């Protein structure tokens, strides 16, 4: 369970964002979200 704590500590709302992303996976926003995630993951 420690890894879950680390995820929530460093990325609050990640689970919520994942659920939202999955709910609109096949929508026109999919590509936009992919781009945003790539930007977010950059150091």
Protein architecture, described:
This protein has 43 residues and is an all-alpha fold. It has one domain. 74% of the residues lie in helices and 0% in strands. The radius of gyration is 12 Å and the shape is flat.
Brief summary of the model shown:
The protein contains three helices and no strands. It is an all-alpha fold and 43 residues long.
Helix content: over 70%
Q: What coarse outline follows from CA principal-axis ratios?
A: flat
- Discrete helix count: 3
Order of secondary-structure elements: HHH
Question: Number of folding domains?
Answer: 1
> Whole-number average pLDDT?
68
Q: Gap between N and C termini, in Å?
A: 26 Å
Q: What percent of residues are in strands?
A: under 5%
Summing up helix and strand content along with how strands pair, one would put the structural category as mainly alpha
Keywords: Membrane, Transmembrane, Transmembrane helix
């Amino acid at each position: 369970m420690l890894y879950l704590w680390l995820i929530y500590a460093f990325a609050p709302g990640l689970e919520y964002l994942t659920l939202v992303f999955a709910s609109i996976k096949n929508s026109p926003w999919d590509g936009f979200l992919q781009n945003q995630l790539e930007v977010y993951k950059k150091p």
